[in-house]
Amino acid sequence: MIEQIYQWVKNIAFYLILITAVMNVLPNNNYKKYVKLFTGMVLVLLVLSPITSLLKLNRTMDFTFMTSSFEQELNELDDQAESFENAQKSRLFTGYEEEVAKEIGEVVEQDGLYPVDIQVVMEEDESSEDYGSIRQIHITAAYSQKQAEGIYIEPVRIGTEEKEEYQPESMEEINIKNDLERFYNISASNINISIQR
Q1: Sorted alphabetically, which keywords does the UniProt record give (predicted)?
Q2: For residues 67 and 73, what is the distance between their CA atoms, to the nearest angstrom?
Q3: CATH code, 124
């Protein structure tokens, strides 16, 4: 019994010396209050350790600690699973948008145009009735391969001021809109086509 008390006092003395050394080594006073709080809690556990061993509370404390740490790990795993699921959904939508853009490019080429840029906007709101459907399509196309590659340069006109007039939709635009409207079940008003002239 005296041996246990001696060991207990020795542990407390060693811990107090260690705390003093750590407190003196800390360069910034901002962290001292947090270190004091933590070391104070550990000191309380050290002081109460003989009482807890007499009352056999060690097992209860171990069980409580294990339970709380298990719950914390479970919460962290839930958070990781949710972030993984969100990343997976994002990759799925991106892949689907790319595939739809590729198919739209083929439709544009069938109408004799060259696709420059195709953007597909999906409904990503899970609470929406239209979740996963196509909301909008933005197409930029050109009449020639050079225009599509960005090599085409319009001729420079000096001294003539031309007002940009409203250009009615060309037959190609109407055909593309009709094809996409039927195939993707999307309103023609949500399909924007810009043809470089």
Answers
A1: Membrane, Transmembrane, Transmembrane helix
A2: 10
A3: 3.30.300
Contact 116, 138 (CB under 8 A): no
Tens digits of per-residue pLDDT, 48-63?
A: 888 877 777 777 877 8
Q: What is the pLDDT of residues 19-43, one digit of tens each?
A: 988 888 887 777 788 888 888 998 9
Bridge partners (DSSP) listed for residue 139: 118, 193
Tracing tokens 């340069």 back to the chain, one arrives at 153
User: How many beta carbons lie within 10 A of that of residue 38, not counting itself?
Assistant: 11
Residue 131 forms part of a structural domain: yes
The verdict on pTM exceeding 0.70 is no
Name, in order, each residue with C-beta under 8 angstroms of 50's C-beta and a sequence gap of 6 or more. 4, 5, 8
Q: What is the DSSP letter of 154?
A: P
Position 86 in a domain: no
One-letter amino acid for residue 69 of the chain: S
Q: Quick check: 187 and 181 in contact, CB under 8 A?
A: yes
> Which two tokens mark 144?
């020639």
Identity of the amino acid at 23? M
- From CA 135, how far away is CA 36, in angstroms rounded? 57
Domain count, the chain: 1
One-letter amino acid of 165: E
Q: Where are the alpha helices (DSSP H) in the chain?
A: 2-25, 32-54, 58-110, 145-148, 171-184
Which amino acid is located at 67 in the chain?
Answer: T
**Maximum Cα–Cα distance across the chain:** 108
